[in-house]
Design a protein that fits this description.
single chain, elongated
C-alpha cells in the first residue's frame, strides 16, 4: 500500500529487529499461564464473585456432556437441572467443572451417595 502525506507519523526505515520471536516467554514466565492457574483455583473455590471471569453460562446439554466425560457417569438434564450420579471422590471435580461452565449446585449441601444436581447460576 502506498500512503502519502503521513511521513510525520511513520518511523524511518530500519533493519528488521528480533520480530515476534522476542515476545515468546518460557512457560513459567507466561502471563497467560498464570491466568489459567488462577481460573482453576477460582473454579475450585467456587465463589460467586469470581463468576464473571468465566463468561456466559453454557447450556444444559454442554454441561451434561462435560460432566459425563469427567465422571464417566451418565448425567441427565431434568427440569432445567443437570443431574450427575457421582461418588464423593468426583464431587469436587464435578462442582469445579460446573462452576467454570456457569452452573452451581442446586442445594447448599450434598449428601454422600446421592446424585449432584446443578442449576444455571445467575451472574
Amino acid at each position: 500500500a502506498l500512503g502519502r502525506g503521513l511521513a510525520r507519523w511513520a518511523l524511518p526505515a530500519a533493519p528488521a529487529g528480533a520480530g515476534a520471536g522476542a515476545t515468546i516467554r518460557a512457560p513459567a514466565q507466561d502471563w497467560f499461564g498464570f491466568g489459567a492457574r488462577e481460573a482453576v483455583l477460582a473454579a475450585l473455590r467456587g465463589q460467586d464473585e469470581d463468576r464473571v471471569g468465566f463468561g456466559a453460562p453454557a447450556d444444559a446439554v454442554e454441561v451434561r456432556d462435560v460432566l459425563e466425560e469427567l465422571t464417566g457417569a451418565q448425567a441427565v438434564v431434568e427440569d432445567g437441572q443437570v443431574v450427575v450420579p457421582c461418588g464423593d471422590p468426583e464431587a469436587a471435580t464435578t462442582k469445579a467443572a460446573a462452576y467454570a461452565l456457569g452452573w452451581r449446585p442446586a442445594a447448599e449441601r450434598h449428601e454422600p451417595g446421592t446424585p449432584l444436581r446443578f442449576v444455571r447460576a445467575t451472574p
